[in-house]
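hey can u run this one w/ manganese (II) ion bound, need the structure tokens asap thx
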Amino acid sequence: MNRKLSVVIAGGGSTYTPEIILMLLDNLERLPLRKIKLYDNDEERQNKVAKACEILIKEKDPTIQYIVTTDPKEAYTDVDFCLAHIRVGKLPMRELDEKIPLKYGCVGQETCGPGGIAYGMRSIGGVLENIDYMEKYSPHCWMLNYSNPASIVAEAVSKLRPNSRVINICDMPIGMENRLAEIIGVPSRKDLDIRYYGLNHFGWYTSIKDKSGNELLPGLVEHMKKYGFINGEKEMKTAEKDSWFETNLFAKYIVETDPTTIPNTYLKYYLFPDYVVEHTNPNYTRTNEVIDGREKDVFTACAEIERNGHSKGTILKIGIHAEFIVDLAIALAFNTHERMLLIVKNNGSIQNISDDAMVEIPCIVGKDGYEPLTIGKIPTFQKGLMEQQVAVEKLVVEAWIEESYQKLWQALMLSKTVPSAIIAKQLLDELIIANKGYWPELH
Ligand code: NAD
Ligand code: G6P
Ligand code: MN
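ok here u go:
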């Protein structure tokens, strides 16, 4: 395939849209584009970034056609790739996902625990709606979906749209590998060969090798016991001490739970929930940081570009960490057989986990989609943790389909982040009220 491609960004009003546009524009030689569209169901929000994105595109390549729309037909007609990053309920609902659980002494987090469950119940319908538009207007199109909570969304898609051309992917391993590459002192994460398995936001590296095949994991574990994912004393001193710094540093405690692996930082919410709750300000959570930080910065920068009519001097940057989206699109369009971590049906890859679990494992990606690699048997510790979490995610999707109060209560009860059935029920009752209009009505 050497024709130029057409992409639509679903969730066009996202704070990530400008950096993804810049990243696409920076990769036109690898992924030639003839059309970029933004699609959102909130016109006002999308307009906060739309004009600036138009200017960025015109500056780089005025031959690229640019369309901004809230009309699904216009958005999804004649597209080869949909990059989907929607947030149903937007940041105000994320804030409730974080703050309601904290009232009950539980982890308040975007994708983990009760917050992730609540978000999952909102996301499923939004993602399915976009898949249906895609299939109606561009049946050959691939959706590269990173709308969260990715595990629950992936489970729902696999169950309700099993034949759809949707690939679920997360940037967290990329972020962690970039950090490991820096710690090791190699230019790029692509200089490393890794082995990893788990669920989304719930996994472990079992091998990190350099290109000569030397195993670096034990040495990295020693580093991590002191600094987590922080790059030594220098970064300890210079880094901005936001919640991501804390999370990266906290990995030093997680690594102790199984020093034969390097853990995903998100495991802290499952393995250290009491610590997390104790160290979270219930009145100022990550959403507040995002609203006061990324959202403000991105929208202000976009307004400035719009006012000036050019982007010279802008603080907007290419989303380097989002390069995996381009890699994935290129693998599909040009059959590169790149090895990537994707969220896919297990189907025997992890031998001692059920076939229908949605797992995050390395896959080879080419023109016809992905082929998962084999992991083999995993240890009892990881198996136990994963099976519990898989059951939570399955119960959420069943609750959504069957509109079942009972199953959603069970999902909350089973979550490692919720201590008892009583608290699970109180939480559920408050989450139902907060999510009115976003969740199916539960019976
Ligand atoms: P945001 O609220 O800034 O933007 C999301 C946009 O989606 C909003 O403009 C909203 O109006 C739009 N939207 C909501 N429902 C929609 C629908 N049904 N159809 C079309 N548009 C819809 O959110 P954000 O902070 O930029 O994050 C966007 C999403 O990307 C979130 O789901 C976030 O969790 C996810 N994300 C995932 C990864 C990953 O690794 N998987 C990384 C970063 C962000
Ligand atoms: C990582 C995760 C995403 C998550 C994001 C939250 O990138 O992989 O799944 O949405 O972090 O970041 P934020 O800055 O919005 O808290
Ligand atoms: Mn993620």
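The two ends are 50 Å apart (CA to CA). anyway lmk if its weird
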